[in-house]
Amino acid sequence: MIKLIASDIDGTLVPDGTDQIDKGIYDVIRRMKRHNIVFAGASGRQYVSMRKLFMPVMDDIYYITDNGSVLRDKNQVYTCHVIDRRELFEMIRDARRLEDCDIMLCGVDKAYCEEESEMFYWMKDSYKFDISVVGDFETNLHDDIVKMSIYHKDNAEAIVDEWFTKKWKDHFTIASAGIMWMDIVYPEATKGKTLMQLQEILGITREETMVFGDNLNDIEMLMAAEESYAIGSARQEVRDAAKHVALPLSESGVLKAITEYLDSEGLG
Predict the structure, then answer these.
(1) Who's near 222: CB < 8 A, 6+ residues apart?
(2) How many Cα atoms occupy the beta-carbon half-sphere of 205 within 13 Å?
(3) Residue 126: strand pairing partners
């Protein structure tokens, strides 16, 4: 029987960069809780943004945030992978050379950028991030950073892969989180590894886990679950990696797949 269900957020449960979640998910999470099935949101988003998204059930779920760098619930942080300051600032200097790209840095509770760019307002107004403009990172940043993100309005993966990825891939995991984002975390801080840490904490096995995703940064997480689902609108690489293909986001694929499972097990 499934005891843990984890889902990516952007592109899987909500359209990228919005808070337009199918509110039926709240009742499904409550239904899961009645039968001792745990729900975990797994996202590149920060904790504050995810709590707002899951407001009606925010105290009842686990949070895999910042692409796997932080694992927490309402009471405590279980794991947190802070990027070495020297490496961080060297990556920032490299990222500034990428044409038409912007940089966002994420601490455990707050995000930072250097100027009031298009990206800043999108994160603040659409993603509902707690984000501040600090000016020059190397001069004014004091928080510990768990994730660095490189943003481009429509071509982040190709631009970052030209040379930045080659330089840093042996030290960090650099993964696409959609056409606009490349997320950079330590290799031990991916969604998949953090999901496995949550399984260990809860005493839940791979065979008792169900996972949903749509993008490259979800593949390792899919591998950590016996019942792995790519939603119908997922990248082909994700569909190839998953055991099942659910309906697309536009048809509430995650919600319907979980509901079908609960119904099949007689878990009303």
Answers:
(1) 192, 211, 213, 228, 229, 230, 238, 241, 242, 243
(2) 4
(3) none
Taking the C-alpha atoms of residue 110 and residue 47, their distance in angstroms, rounded to an integer, is 9
CA–CA separation, 115 and 133 (whole Å):
5
Query: Which among 169, 226, 165 is positioned nearest to 195, based on CA atoms?
Result: 226
Task: Give the integer Cα–Cα distance in Å for 102 and 154.
Answer: 12
161-175 confidence digits (pLDDT tens): 999 999 999 999 998
With b meaning 16 or more CB within 10 Å and e meaning fewer, what string describes 48-85? bbbbebbeebbebbbbbbbbbbbbbbeeeebbbbbbee
Dihedral (CA of 125, 129, 135, 136) sign: negative
Q: 143: which DSSP letter?
A: S
Is the pLDDT at 268 greater than 90, yes or no?
no
Classify residue 89 as exposed, middle or buried by CB count within 10 Å of its CB (0-12, 13-18, 19+).
middle
pLDDT per residue as tens digits for the range 191-204: 999 999 999 999 99
| Residues 135/114, Cβ–Cβ less than 8 Å | yes
Question: Which phi and psi angles does 104 have, rounded to 5°?
Answer: -125, 135
Nearest 5 degrees, angle CA 178-CA 179-CA 185? 50
